[in-house]
Each structure stands twice: as structure tokens, then as C-alpha cells.
Sequence to fold (235 residues):
Amino acid sequence: MKLTFLTGAGISTAAGIPDFRGPQGVWTKDPEAERTSTLSWYLADAQVRARAWSQRAAAAVWEREPTAAHRAIAASAERHDVQIITQNVDGLHQAAGSPPESVLEVHGSARRWRCEDCRDSGPIEDAMARVAAGEADPPCPRCGGIIRATTILFEEMLDPDVIDRAVTAAQECDLLLAVGTGLTVQPVAGLVPLAHESGAEIRIVNAEPTPCDGWASAVVRGDLQETLPPLLAGL
Fold:
């Protein structure tokens, strides 16, 4: 069976990574925090960059462990042809054992840094060590330019190759499972009706209702760390 997963912040909150748009989300509680994810603000204001690095230090995604749900998705690849389309930037699918080539990170990755000037890059841990040592806004070690995590910021285009591969995964799967996502952010939300139109079965595992519930053959509520593993084991 060809399985395509759409995963969002809800799969990683159990790992200690907060979401952004939920009732207790980072942007919900502090709308000003959204500036750190906006390219023009990030490039223009050193204080915004310093705040972004402080937020990364608090999240410490490189130290987080995959959840039971991440591991259940990774294990499903032993029995099925699996593609994972994730809105998350934490790298926990790969950490759980999902092959990197099967994971499409629509919004990029928080596990590496990149220079905006010379395009040099490296593990995010290297930049975070400099922050911990007292550099609030560490410059590129190669050219002195502005560095950032390799996440997609507001005002940036998504990677067209990643989007093309995500569309293909939605069109060609037998079953699409949306896990821990409210399905309100495009283009990922649009993959659900696309998969349905292409003949795939849709199942949604999420704590709250989504706009796509009407396309689903099954909607599963509750703690997805408890509900997803047995659901996948039964496939």
C-alpha cells in the first residue's frame, strides 16, 4: 500500500516543541513573535535576529526526541511504501528512523544554518554554541554575513521541487493520513482534496476539527500519541 502522511505541529508537541497557531501557540500568545519568522524583519533588525536565536535556544529542537507517533510512522515504512509531507522543521521524522529521502520538509529545516550572503552552511548546533557563549546574533564565520536557520520564512517562496514531489505523493497514494495538522495552511491543506479526487482514502488524526474532515473516511480525535500507533499497526 502507498501511504502518504501529512504531519503538522500536533505530532511534535509531545516532544516539547510548541506549535505556532494553536490556542497555546507561540504566535497566538505573542503576535510580535511572528516578526522573527518574517524575512524583511529578520534581515533588517538585529534585535529581531537576536530574539529569533533566543527562541531557537528555548526550543532546542536538535535535543528533542521523536515521539511514539513519529516512531509509528517510521515503522510503517517496513510494511508499506511511505512518503511523509511535513509542515514541521524539527527533523524528528528522520530522527525516528524515517529515511531522509522519504521526508518532504515543506517549510525547511531548523537543524541547519545558512548564510544569506555567501551561502555557507552547517549544523545548527554550531551556531547555537556561539549563542550560548554570548553572541546574541552570530555572524557567518566565513564572511561575516547574516545567518539564519534553513527554514522558510514569510515573504519567501517554498521550494518548488519539494511542492512538486508532495503533489505527486498525494496523487499517487492509496491512503493519505493527516496527522496533527489543522489543515488550514496552503499548499499542504490543498493536498487533501487533491488526494481524494485522485482516488485515495483520507483519514484525519487531529485533536481539533479541520476544514477537510468532510473528505475523510475516518476522523480520529484524542491524543494522537495514543491513537496513531494502533491505527497504523492495523493497516
